[in-house]
Specification:
The structure holds two protein chains of two kinds. Chain A is mostly beta strands. Chain A contains no helices and eleven strands. Classes of the chains: A mainly beta, B mainly beta. The interface between A and B is medium-sized, with 27 and 24 residues.
Chain lengths: 116, 111
């Protein structure tokens, strides 16, 4: 079956712009999590969604937002981009947010954002 | 506070040598621990989880609750083991999310 699909794979923006990233989870997976990956900080948790509801949110400013649709697809948005937002944004899906399968995450290839 | 510490940013070994990637955690209760791996130009993927008690690609990891550690070991490293390895801990959710990652250790296996 198809894996986690993230689009776009690469994008370049300038400071002050906004960006929307998309994630399609594995079919049947209803939980979607987003992470920011940078060389210095590693993987930092952004949000987690299940059944169109945000269950958890990381310590990121309000410029970072997300949502999940009824088909489990998810989007995240970053407004007023800053240079420090340059990173690889990873989406991961799992069957459910709780229970034994909850933390067996399947990751997408990521969206690499460069802010100039 | 829940925390995962991987003390080594980079670990370099020669092919055929034993390798141990260290992971220490801080958690109240019974932890669930994982190792994820990211090979060059590939996606981050689950390597193993402690409840499975299995060996994947020759790697094993034992949960030591007394030392709060979950070190990843392999007796004979191969060049294809070169990758970024992340230790992860199931969390309580909230601002850390359900899965808390360490900062990772880059393993380099030299020929």
């Amino acid at each position: 079956k198809a894996g986690v699909t993230q689009t776009p794979r690469y994008l370049i923006k300038t400071r002050g712009q906004q960006v929307t990233l998309s994630c399609s989870p594995i079919s049947g997976h209803r939980s979607v999590s987003w992470y920011q990956q940078t060389p210095g900080q590693g993987l930092q948790f952004l949000f987690e969604y299940f059944s169109e509801t945000q269950r958890n949110k990381g310590n990121f400013p309000g410029r970072f937002s997300g949502r999940q649709f009824s088909n489990s697809r998810s989007e995240m948005n970053v407004s007023t981009l800053e240079l420090g937002d340059s990173a690889l944004y990873l989406c991961a899906s799992s069957l459910t947010p709780t229970g034994l399968g909850a933390n067996v995450l399947t990751f997408g290839a990521g969206s690499r954002l460069t802010v100039l | 506070a829940q925390r995962v510490t991987q003390p080594e940013k980079l670990l370099s070994v020669f092919k055929g040598a034993p390798v141990e990637l260290k992971c220490n955690y801080s958690y109240s209760g019974s932890p669930e621990l994982f190792w994820y791996v990211q090979y060059s130009r590939q996606r981050l993927q689950l390597l193993l989880r402690h409840i499975s008690r299995e060996s994947i690609k020759g790697f094993t990891a034992d949960l030591n609750k007394g030392e709060t550690s979950f070190h990843l070991k392999k007796p004979f490293a191969q060049e294809e083991d070169s990758a970024m390895y992340y230790c992860a801990l199931s969390g309580y959710g909230g601002s850390q999310g359900n899965l808390i990652f360490g900062k990772g250790t880059k393993l380099s296996v030299k020929p």
